[in-house]
Inverse folding.
């Protein structure tokens, strides 16, 4: 999540409900400044949401999170 306005906030809430990994680029302005308040108001934890100031590190952290989550999923391609 980088900056954004009300539509970005809407996408954020959908991603939270869908339990999608989310990266928030701190210092990019817009709705990124409101994420903590939204989570608090919604009584939601920061689980699956990564905050960072460096875009490259944020992307690397998101990739790690996605790979960790996907490694825990069953392999549906193997034969039974």
């Amino acid at each position: 999540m980088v900056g954004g306005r009300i539509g970005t906030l809407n996408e954020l809430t959908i991603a939270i409900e869908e339990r999608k990994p989310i990266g928030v680029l701190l210092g990019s302005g817009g709705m990124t400044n409101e994420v903590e308040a939204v989570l608090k108001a919604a009584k939601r934890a920061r689980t699956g949401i990564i905050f960072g100031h460096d875009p490259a590190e944020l992307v690397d952290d998101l990739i790690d999170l996605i790979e960790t989550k996907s490694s825990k999923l069953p392999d549906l391609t193997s034969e039974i």
